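Honest question from a wet-lab person: if I give you the sequences of every part of a complex, can you actually get the arrangement of the whole thing, not just the pieces? Trying it with mine:
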Amino acid sequence: MTTQAIPTRNFVAALCLGFTVTLTPPAIAQNRDGADPALVAQGEYIARAGDCVACHTAPGGKPFAGGLPMETPIGTIYSTNITPDPKTGIGGWSYDDFARLMRTGVTKDNGTVYPAMPYPSYARMNDADMKALYAYFMHGVQPVEAENRASDIPWPLSMRWPLTFWRWTFAPNVAAAQRATPAVEDSATADKIARGAYLVEGAGHCGACHTPRGLGMQERALTKADGDLYLSGGGPIDGWLAPSLRNEPDVGLGSWSEDDIVAFLKTGRNSRTATFGAMNDVVVHSMEYLSDPDLHSIAAYLKSLPPRDGNIQPYTYNDTISKALFNGDASVRGAQVYVDRCAACHRTDGKGYNRVFPALAGNPALQSGDPTSAIHIVLSGSRMPATMTAPSAFVMAPYADILTDQSIADVVSFIQTSWGNRGQPATAEQVAAMRKSATPVPAMGQTVVSSETRTTGP
Amino acid sequence: MADIKMKSVDAVIIGFGWTGAIMAKELTEAGLKVVALERGPNRDTYPEGAYPKSIDELTQNSRHALFQDMSKSTLTIRHKPDDQAAPYRQLAAFLPGTGVGGAGLHWSGCHWRITPEELRIRSHYEERYGKNFIPEDMTLQDWGVTYEELEPHFDFAEKVFGTAGQAYKVNGKVVGAGNPFDADRSSEFPLPPMRNTYSAELFRKAAAEVGYHPFSIPSANASAPYTNPYGCQMAPCTFCGFCSGYACYNYSKASPNVNILPALRLVPHFELRAECNVVEIQTDSTGKKATGVLYVDSQGNRVTQPADLVILGTFAYNNAHMMLVSKIGTPYDPKTGQGTIGKNFCYQNENSVSVFFDNDKYTNPFIGAGGNGVACDDFNADHFDHGPLGFVGGSPLWVNQSGSKPISGVGLPSGTPAWGSAWKKAVKDTYTHVLSMNAHGTNMPFRDCYLDLDPEYTDYLGRPLLRLTFDWHENDIKMIRYAVGKMQKIAEAMNPKAIKVSVKNFGEQFDSRHYQTTHMGGGVIMGDNPATSAVNRYLQSWDVSNLFVVGSSAFPQGLGYNPTGTVAALTYWSAKAIREQYLKNPGPLVRA
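Yes, you can. This is the full assembly:
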């Protein structure tokens, strides 16, 4: 497969998500040449937490061999080969070379990488974790000979020196970053919130999607201490809105318990909702591999983030629509489409079914002023991720071929405003715009259902 | 097109319906590297079952979207051994599936066990009614396995399928208003019984009034959100009525695709190859050991897949066909009664009563679910005295309102014209005021009902077609007339406007032009004697010990109950024997 055939993605999307097709994740640590297996396994775990595979693997390509195209405002860049191949990968890199790149974005030959690489977050990783990660990439990953591909950015924009200025302007001082986010190594004994901060602000780089970006495409806050923009919700990425991970009672995680968050990250679903869009890959390649104590630490940390706006009232269920639909009154705009197309699964009361069909009533994604995600999901459909502990990949079929722009706008407006939901209505123009890029959810496997695309986890 | 030889695997599974999926799960759990070969295409809830396209009756059921392509391969049918057989070119009487999930994707969901007596039917009848009760040409035999041995596997299969039902007796204690004829269970159903349609509740009331014992049919249509022991999930059934003949869009009907495959996809040592049609099971020079299989893939390549263990899990009668074309075992000869492959083909024996009500009584036949309904078992198995009746077998009676679709589902009173304005008026008058009840009876095996290879017709690969020789016998017509008579009493107790009885007449022949049921069995039957059975009590071939033949092909007689529950339990039973006995010491598990 040539990389030319691969559609490019917004670099922010690729940054943390990779492609929606199943990537081939690394095999369980190979430990090719006698390195300390425990260290290599620890490194693999950190590579999972950092979701390195998502960006550094091309669709259908070998794990970590790079080549994933990422679209930036100035052209397409390609992720690099980070296998230990001495010629084309990082096999010739010392630990110091590796750690410098990871924390400062400066390469072995003193260039600066594009900030698609979230080194401002990785800067927080301590030496023990960084050494384990290095051991994994040197000894646990199969070397692949694959030349890095030059970017498609035209001159003069292709000059790399401005990246140095970006780095000077936006990247944190490493020592300061490590003081701001102190390393906490073990969830079992540690302060959960501190361990969670280390995972979220560091390797997990959640802010790459969930924190708003500034004019220089920099994340406007990198830690909890940077203020309440941190994890307050990012812009649309590939037509999906990354919601706030702070504790707003409506659009954020305010109504979720720690267990709700853990179930969501581990299985891609909980009693309230399910992952969709870009988050699916994060669950499948990264989150489901984390230990329960670490997931609880992440959840506890997220629960510690106060809402950006402290005056928002919690969502309360309103049964007006549910009663009307039960009585056969679908006269509200969009209600008939809802009954015909949506209610079999999501039910007329909007409450769905526990862990199976997401509730729409009170769903944080539907309290938003921006209906982007809801429109996208109706057009494209959606598949829940198949995870090790919840293998059923429930699919909502796409409606792009069945419903007009106006019908989709009506039904999205209906779900954004029914059962007490406080989202904004959608317009046919918004649907028409999204329709141009929305692709139907792919079928699972074509002629062969092969588990070779998957490893079992730690 | 090339000849390809694959790397050897521990086990190859032929066919990926319920039996193939269960075996794949069990054998991969035992650590084996398993390849499953499915002749049909890959299928899943999405896109094949995606709403709303999946509930298009014309595409799905009328034009057979999920069923076997009869232009490539079929079987030939005749009534008597002296007749000329003709190919079954258009699907009608029975609907074999194809593709990933097999019949398990398009079944309806009635999920029964078996009665303990039916597993030792010859011994039981001889003990109760004397040695001379069973007619001489009825080739009845015991299964070689007991209910107690199968019970843990019935129990586990229900947990895998998410079966909804009401138990009667658990560990010897009566626990609820289930079927009082049920054998003891080791646990309750995993889900509570489904809610019932009005028609089924009318049946419950009327059946109780005439002194029978109605209960909710155990159904593998989920009554609540459910997670099975494999972590696979189901959603509650919406009673949309599109079960049999359809892939359930709602993840509510148990299927290999919904209940097992998601877990198998995570297993690195499992591979499923769709559109790979197995031509034959290959054996070594002694003919006593299978070496693997030969199949044709979607590109037309002829591929050899060597394996240490072969599992044959195709649709019912196709197991016999594969044995015959692979020349494994001795073909059955109806003249001498010798040989076992093809012996005891059995079907199911179904008739119905339609009940029409006045226009103020609404039965809403458009809703329903494949496994939903109320039954009574008073005239099934040996729950009644056969002594004075002079037949073997019986029939459960039920209202199983599975959703009347616009093309196939309009029941009309006797004498209604088949077209024109009078037909239209009758449809308007009756559609929402009718219910249908069924007697879903046993079919006993007879010496002249069997499967062999057709001497004339071949399939697209040049193999002889399977030939089915089958007709109704007086025993079965007596039985169904008796059962329908009892059902008519229930109908009368509903005080309807009219009743229409459809029942076989004496001398009536098997008519393959009208849908009856897809519940076929036999051909590779189980038993405790290699002279009269093709596989032993563990479904292991008597002739080739590294070959296990699973499915309703093992049934020595046709049951009144739908076969899937028993098929699943037998498969888990066979898998247990492979895991706990065969793998430790490969070879025959029963000394011949």
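Two things worth pointing out. The first strand of chain A starts at residue 9 and ends at 10. Residues 1-11, 13-29, 446-458 of chain A have pLDDT under 50 and may be disordered.
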